[in-house]
Design a protein that fits this description.
The complex is a heterodimer of chains A (about 180) and B (about 110). In chain A, about 75% of the residues lie in helices and about 0% in strands. By secondary structure, chain A is mostly helical. By secondary structure, chain B is an all-alpha fold. Chain B contains 3 helices and no strands. The longest helix of chain B is centred in the last third of the chain and has 32 residues, at about 65-95. Classes of the chains: A mainly alpha (about 180), B mainly alpha (about 110). At the A-B interface, helix 1, helix 2, helix 3, helix 4 and helix 5 of A face helix 1, helix 2 and helix 3 of B.
Chain lengths: ~180, ~110
């Protein structure tokens, strides 16, 4: 028994894709144009949630999971913690540059966006046969530890050094208690 | 290509990635605080990640590679963010401000 026809299922899927795209863009706009730092960080979290949805449409559910865990769960929370430690008042966090400079930057960035979107639209992307199999978590783990083993080890070293460095930098200049 | 099956084409993802990159680039110019610049930098990295995954889904014979590289980008972004936030805490302790324009002691 089929409850939903495949046509309406496709329309539903397209609708959810459009909603995720809109969430991503809306979050990015809030992260850029809002005047309060805490709203900027919240917009960043919203944008990352939308991107996790887009990763589902790109057949990579593991990446969607990691996007939520690492970006939304770790980085955004860390940014908000830093705001609480560094800008407790939160009212002098935003002093934008002058109007002329803002308009100039807006014009430059719009030109860049228009040019890049024009390139994307006019270039004839080669159509490759879609492989029906998509990468499972097992494939990703095997690929990381076989083909990209050296990169994996290097990144774990970088993370270790970054943790030690962050502790050292944040402790410097603190009075002994 | 209709509006309902956009998710099975390459171009919508590329356009989204372009918009994320450009918004992040403008944010770096627009924000005057170091925290705002860090947030905009994360948006740029997100655009690059979306590009990598989209190309590996639609153009590559091996669908794993783009995902693995995006995982690496996530690890490096976490390391970068932790260092920058530690720097921000130290800067705030010394200057009582997170505005980028107050850090001008080396200005000639």
């Amino acid at each position: 028994m089929q409850l939903i026809s495949s046509g309406s299922l496709m329309i539903l899927s397209g609708l959810v894709f459009l909603i995720f795209s809109a969430i991503t863009l809306l979050g990015a706009l809030v992260a850029t144009f809002s005047k309060r730092l805490i709203r900027n960080a919240s917009g960043l979290a919203l944008s990352f949630v939308g991107m996790a949805g887009l990763y589902y449409y790109l057949y990579s559910p593991f990446l969607a999971l990691m996007q939520i865990v690492i970006y939304v769960g770790a980085i955004c929370i860390m940014i908000m913690f830093t705001m609480m430690l560094a800008e407790p008042r939160g009212n002098n966090g935003f002093t934008p540059m002058g109007t002329v400079l803002t308009v100039l930057a807006l014009v430059g960035c719009s030109l860049m966006a228009i040019g890049l979107i024009f390139l994307v639209g006019t270039y004839s992307w080669p159509v490759t046969p879609q492989n029906a199999s998509f990468a499972t978590m097992k494939d990703i783990g095997r690929d990381i530890l076989n083909r990209h083993g050296l990169v994996f080890e290097l990144i774990s070293g970088v993370l270790l050094i970054a943790i030690i460095g962050a502790i050292l930098i944040a402790r410097a200049g603190r009075k002994k208690v | 290509m209709t509006v309902w099956n956009l998710s099975s084409f390459l171009q919508p993802y590329l356009i989204l990635a372009v918009l994320l990159f450009v918004i992040g680039f403008f944010g770096i110019l627009y924000h005057r605080t170091i925290i705002g610049m860090l947030i905009s930098g994360e948006l740029i990295l997100a655009g690059a990640s979306l590009n990598l995954v989209a190309f590996s889904r639609f153009q590559s014979p091996n669908p794993v590679t783009g995902q693995v590289f995006t995982l690496f980008i996530m690890g490096l972004a976490a390391a970068e963010a932790s260092i920058v936030l530690a720097l921000i805490i130290t800067i705030y302790r010394n200057y009582k401000s997170v505005n980028a324009s107050t850090l001008n002691e080396l200005k000639g």
